[in-house]
Amino acid sequence: MAHQNTPKIIYHADDDEDDRLLFLDALEDLSLPAVVQGARDGQELLHTLDKNKGRLPDMIFLDINMPIKNGFDCLAEIRRREDALKEVRIIMLSTSKSPDNIELCHKLGADFYAVKPSSFQGLKDLLQKVFEMDWGSVQKSGSRFLLV
């Protein structure tokens, strides 16, 4: 596994600056090999993705409730694309536990849905789990869609 220590390129879109900083702190605390590009909303995320087409991210963490362009619209737009970006792993990371939101994210093509943990340790545990996944063998299914 020569690529295991290669830093993952992660995009994280969340309008809450504290949540973006906690995300960075959790990755740093875990010493996970990652380079994170943050965005304040879906529109900024899409703009950044278009600007950096030469290097696709390994995964995108996407909040739902954001101004300008919310996570649903951003997810739908990414999945409708005609380029390699539509295949990037997308993990919805939201405070919402609404079954309707979870189902909509699944239908729109997210790879996983995770309710934002209520503690820093919970966030670290979630990120550790995501980094340890064997993405090659992960298949989308309703029963394994929700990360807890």
TrEMBL record:
GO biological process: phosphorelay signal transduction system
Residue span(s) of domain Response regulatory: 9-131
Protein's organism: Flavobacterium crocinum
Keyword line: Phosphoprotein
Pfam families per the UniProt record, alphabetical: Response_reg
PROSITE patterns registered for this protein in UniProt: RESPONSE_REGULATORY (PS50110)
Modified residues (4-aspartylphosphate): D63
UniProt protein name: Response regulator
